Amino acid sequence: MTANTQTTPSTPTTTTAPNRARRGGLAAAALAVLATALPIGALPSPAQAAPAGAEGRPAWCPTVPGHRVDCTTMRRPLVADEPGLGTIGVSHAVVRHSRPGPALGTIALNPGGPGETMIDRAGQVSTALQGVLDDYDLLLLDPRGTGRSGRLPCDVTEAEYRWAPRADQRELVADCAEELGPRARGYTSAATADDLDAARERLGAPKLVLYGLSYGTYLMPVYADRHPERVDRMVLSGAYPLAFDSLARPGAQQVSLTLRRICERSGSCDPDTVVHDLAAVTERLRTRPLKVTATVDGRKRTVAFTEDKLANLMYEPATRGIGLHPGEPGLLGALPAALHALAAGDEAPLTALVRGQIESTGTEDQASFLAVTCNDYARAWDQDAPVAERRRQYRAALAATDPADFGAFSAKGWAEGQTDGGDNCLNWPRRGTARPQPTDLRNVPDVPVLVLSGDLDTNTPELNSRRAAAQFKHSAFVSVPNSGHVPEMESTGCTLEIAGRFIRTGEVGDTSCVAGVPPVPVVPVPR
User: Fold this and answer.
1) How does pLDDT run across 299-346, given as a tens digit for each residue?
2) DSSP character at residue 64
3) Cα three-residue angle 218-390-115, rounded to 5 degrees
4) DSSP string, 137-197
């Protein structure tokens, strides 16, 4: 069937397709997130670097079968108008279209994070977009501070940061800021947007098709606002608005909805029971954390799995990568049974899931991620205030919330589960760092915008994605059932087909293929 589509000049288009069972909405994050951007697990291995000096290219320039790839590094000011802070090398690769004649346009893609790289994924992205790259060039820029663009270290790894107690996380953020010093001012979304435009100008491309996933849906509107005359159209997947809720309340509400949906669609668990179990587990973890021992970097460590760690599990990894391994329940499909067991007093299933998550967490340095999010994102306090006053303002903001806004979680537990929100940046210094990114988009061009959202996504849930779509005059919204953060990872290729058609035509077209995205398998829960 063809999904219903309603269009008005000032209202985002909504496309929702039912599945075999009762279906609904969506949400979208990391690759913060996210995670990984495109279905990498189902694609060829990363493109290999060419030999040093081959065809006059840098040694790190990837090769992509069937395409010419050009690579370069630009010298860019670290901080505009502050020459004393020096410059930074920002690298990009351009995968050229395969057909004869001039390109129909240039696609610029950002996979999220912040901090995700692009150049080393040239082969994977080119495979995912292979039909479009017959006629379009693909611009892949490693954001400053990542990959080939002057990697920025501050000796805080993902595993160390994510699994530390919240108070320790705040100190790790402060330590990172101290390590970076005045360099931290150079790592913002606005600076990366300007780097992207410098690459566009160097290529001689009059305009860009902007494709953002997860954090890329924040970065690309910043680019569009700063360089409106250079935007052809936009695809935003797993989206959130610039003026998002720093307490992530839409995500808290989405958790229960997502668990209900997978139970309804699989028939393997009762929707009311799974929400009741979630509430029982969050209450238990507030006072009696699980003690989980795992091996990280060859060393044994014990993590206190508290309410905020469960919140983080539900917010970030639970709905990331859904569809990469069709037929497997993954973390999300295993959670109802594990929650039910712990609600009944059996710690083993959830402990095993958490141990697996701890041991699979990466060890990448978090400098770029922390610098961009702490510099740019809006907070629940005055960023010019001293830390003690910020703390008071944050606590007052939490106290003023409606407990119902956080679903099965407490306000404190949910907010402290956000690695890029809540109070994580409370100790980020204001003096010597960048000003926050403005949340109002005053200059965005009136161009076609497609917003894609997975209806199981707890990271950038449907409410946030709809708000992202509402930032633009002419936007289309497509909800992809049974998919998470980001929906391009679903196994059928339907979402990539919709995105590719939009890139080529500026029209959404027939979205009936989303009805074929299979439900998430769920480990059966005793009734």
Assistant:
1) 899 999 999 999 999 999 999 989 888 899 999 999 999 999 999 999
2) B
3) 30
4) EEEEE--TTSTTTT----S-BHHHHHHS-HHHHHHHHHHHHHHHGGGGGG-SHHHHHHHHH
d(CA 454, CA 460): 9
The answer to whether 12 touches 451, Cβ cutoff 8 Å, is yes
Q: Are strands 136-141 and 231-237 parallel, antiparallel or unpaired?
A: unpaired
Residue 4, φ and ψ in degrees, nearest 5: -70, 135
Nearest to 275 by CA among 306, 253, 290, 304: 253
Helix (H, G, I), strand (E, B) or coil at 204: coil
Name the residue with higher pLDDT: 3 or 60: 60
Q: pTM of this prediction?
A: 0.90
Query: Is 397 buried (19+), middle (13-18) or exposed (0-12) by CB count in 10 A?
Result: middle
CA–CA distance, 132 with 138 (Å, rounded to integer): 9
- Residue owning tokens 């996210």: 34
Which helix (H) or strand (E) element contains residue 90?
strand 87-95
Whether residue 429 contacts residue 232, with contact meaning beta carbons closer than 8 Å, is answered with no
Beta bridge partners of 71: 93
Strand order in the sheet with 4-8: 4-8, 11-16, 475-480, 449-454, 231-237, 208-213, 105-110, 136-141, 87-95, 69-77
- Per-residue HEC secondary structure of 324-375 comes to CCCCCCHHHHHHHHHHHHHHCCCCHHHHHHHHHHHHHCCCCECHHHHHHHHH
Alpha helices in 204-306 (DSSP H): 216-226, 249-266, 271-287
Cβ(238)–Cβ(304) under 8 Å? no
What would the two tokens of residue 412 be? 């404190």
Distance in angstroms (rounded) separating the CA atoms of residues 119 and 47: 9
The candidate with the shortest Cα–Cα distance to 26, out of 35, 40, 12, 16, is 16
C-alpha 435: how far from its chain's center? 22
The CA distance from 411 to 46, in Å, is 41
- 114's tokens: 């912040």
Beta strands at 475-480 and 87-95: parallel, antiparallel or unpaired: unpaired
Beta strands in 354-481 (DSSP E): 449-454, 475-480
pLDDT tens digits, one per residue of 435-470: 889 999 999 999 999 999 999 999 999 999 999 999
d(C-alpha 32, C-alpha 12), whole Å = 25
d(CA 213, CA 209): 13
**DSSP 8-class letter at 313:** H
Q: Return the domain boundaries, the chain.
A: 4-437+445-516
Assigned CATH for 4-437+445-516 = 3.40.50.1820
d(CA 124, CA 93): 14
